[in-house]
Write a structure and sequence with these properties.
By secondary structure, the chain is an alpha/beta fold. Helices cover 37% and strands 16% of the residues. It contains 10 helices and 8 strands. It is globular, with a radius of gyration of 17 Å. The protein starts with a strand and ends with a helix.
Length: 267
């Protein structure tokens, strides 16, 4: 696997490339991580959703301010519409003129769905892993993100992560998975949390207009990624299926399920 950087202009107009890599050959795929995570952190948590899949040309990148990508202290740069603009610009550079299979989890899933509403012809399919809170489920989560931003400003990201650390509530999350601090610099993490607090999915009517095949991956008993949101999307999207993992072993099967879904959608 080789890591490259391609110059392009992100949503904020900085002209600085986001850190990314390309692996494999085959159908074009873009993979996105969650809030405060990165490509590396997804691997640590077992959430590299295209790992080991043949026949795919996978673009993975660290979102603005995450992992190896440059960031800012402006919360507006971390809202889902801003991240969706970054994604669409990245696709212009790496997969020009091609419909791409989008794979993302949490914030990455929200970014993909936001981008698909804005430019539906850019995507051949969507895999939305553990969709985050949205609509009436979003307000309480936004309050928690604002609180986290204040705590990180006071304590720093590492101490915040350790202080707020709790055992996983969902039976699908491996209780022995490694602990990892946010992969976002302390100077940018409060803005990333505040940008998340300002974010929500497009309206239900707009989401219902996304006509590409969609795979939903969810697990129960996780307040930040409610199964109810995945079930709401199941009722809204016209071409969709839902896979619910209730054990770590079922989560470990997600890359296989994603690979089969993308190949079926691309056939």
């Amino acid at each position: 696997m080789t890591t490259t950087r391609r110059p392009y202009t992100p949503a904020g107009g900085t002209g600085t490339a986001l850190a990314h890599d390309l692996r494999g050959d085959g159908l074009p795929v873009v993979q996105l991580h969650g809030l405060s995570s990165s490509r590396r952190r997804d691997e640590v948590f077992g959430l590299d959703l295209t790992a080991g899949r043949d026949g795919l040309r996978v673009l993975r990148y660290d979102a603005r301010g995450h992992g190896g990508s440059p960031g800012s202290t402006d919360p507006a740069d971390y809202t889902w519409p801003a991240l969706a603009r970054d994604l669409l610009t990245m696709l212009d550079e790496v997969f020009p003129g091609r419909r791409v299979h989008g794979v993302g989890q949490s914030m990455g899933a929200a970014t993909l769905l936001t981008a698909a509403v804005a430019e539906p012809d850019r995507f051949a399919s969507l895999t939305l892993g553990i969709p985050p809170t949205a609509w009436e489920w979003r307000r309480e989560q936004a309050t928690l993100y604002d609180l986290a931003a204040r705590q990180v400003t006071r304590w720093g990201g590492a101490r915040w992560a350790e202080t707020t650390r709790q055992p996983p509530t969902s039976p699908a999350i491996d209780p022995d998975r490694p602990f990892a601090v946010p992969d976002v610099a302390d100077e940018w993490l409060p803005a990333a949390f505040r940008g998340a607090a300002l974010s929500d999915l497009p309206s239900r009517a707009e989401v219902a207009g996304v006509g590409v095949p969609v795979l939903l991956l969810a697990w129960p008993d996780d307040a930040s990624h409610p199964l109810a949101v995945a079930e709401e999307l199941l009722g809204l999207l016209p071409d969709v299926r839902l896979e619910v993992a209730r054990t770590p072993a079922e989560v470990a099967a997600w890359p296989r399920i994603v690979g089969e879904f993308v190949h079926d959608a691309g056939a």
